[in-house]
Design a protein that fits this description.
Length: 241
C-alpha cells in the first residue's frame, strides 16, 4: 500500500542528531523522559501528517509515501532532505538596545520572532546580540525511526485528528455531503486560544479536505449556578434590565 498526497496518516517517530545521538523530537513520552528530552508542553503519542502539505521535511514525507501500514522503518537524511544546509547570511548582529526597548532580555538559546522570522539567540555581549535565523537543526544529518500506525479515511476521523493537532478537538462531528458541522460542548474551555485555534482548524479543513465546501460551528454555553458574577459593569447591567 503506497500512500499519496492528501492522505491523512498518524505516525509514531523519533528523530536523532545522527552525529551525537541526541534526540531532536519523539512521540514516545517514556523515551523522552529516559533520554532527558522531555518537554512538558509537548503532547506525546501518534501525530498527524497530511501528505503533500509540507508539514514535515521532504525526506521524511518521501519515505512515508513508500511505507506500509504498521511498518516500522529507520533511515538517515542528509541536511538537504531534512532541515536544510546552514546559510551564513542568516546569522546577524543586532543592537541590544533594540531588544531592551521592547522589554526583552535576550539570552543564548532563546527563541524569538523578529519581523515574522523565527531566530535563535546565539550570544549576548558588549551591547550586541547575535541571532541565527537558520533552523536549529540545519546542517545536521537526521536519523529517523518511523511507524505508520493509522490511515484516516472518514471525515470524522480526519477532522478529530486535525482538532487534536490544534488542541480544539470537536465534541462531535456531523457531515452531510459537502458540508460538515463541528459541535463544541460547554465542557470545552472557550478562551482566547480556543477561538484562534478553532479558526486555524476550519482553515485547515477547507485546505486539506477538498470534498468539503462549508464548515459550520455550533457551540454550547451553559449556566453554571456556582459561577461568580463578573465584578465589572454590574451596575450598568442592572440599569439595562
Amino acid at each position: 500500500m503506497a500512500f499519496n498526497d492528501g492522505d491523512f496518516l498518524e505516525i509514531e517517530y523519533t528523530a536523532w542528531n545522527d552525529s551525537d545521538g541526541s534526540i531532536i523530537a519523539t512521540t514516545d513520552e517514556k523515551l523522552a523522559k529516559d533520554s532527558d528530552a522531555y518537554n512538558k508542553d509537548v503532547k506525546y503519542g501518534p501525530t498527524l501528517v497530511v501528505l503533500g502539505s509540507n508539514a514535515v521535511v521532504k525526506g521524511l514525507e518521501r519515505e512515508l509515501k513508500g511505507m506500509e501500514l504498521n511498518q516500522k522503518k529507520s533511515f538517515v537524511l542528509e541536511p538537504s532532505e531534512a532541515f536544510g544546509e546552514r546559510v551564513a547570511d542568516l546569522v546577524k548582529v543586532m543592537p541590544l538596545s533594540q531588544f531592551k526597548s521592547q522589554n526583552i532580555s535576550p539570552y543564548p538559546g532563546m527563541r524569538l520572532n523578529i519581523d515574522n522570522v523565527a531566530v535563535t539567540v546565539v550570544s549576548v555581549g558588549s551591547g550586541r546580540v547575535v541571532v541565527d535565523a537558520n533552523h536549529p537543526d540545519a546542517g545536521k544529518k537526521i536519523k529517523y525511526e518511523v511507524k505508520v500506525v493509522k490511515k484516516l479515511d472518514s471525515v470524522d476521523e480526519k477532522i478529530k485528528s486535525l482538532g487534536k493537532t490544534y488542541d480544539v478537538e470537536p465534541t462531535k462531528v456531523e457531515s452531510k455531503g459537502p458540508e460538515v458541522e463541528l459541535f463544541y460542548s460547554d465542557e470545552v474551555k472557550k478562551n482566547a486560544d480556543y477561538f484562534v485555534n478553532r479558526a486555524s482548524l476550519v482553515a485547515s479543513i477547507l485546505t486539506y479536505m477538498k470534498s468539503l465546501q462549508k464548515v459550520y460551528v455550533r457551540e454550547e454555553y451553559a449556566r453554571h449556578e456556582n459561577a461568580e458574577e463578573p465584578h465589572e459593569h454590574k451596575e450598568s447591567e442592572k440599569e439595562s434590565e
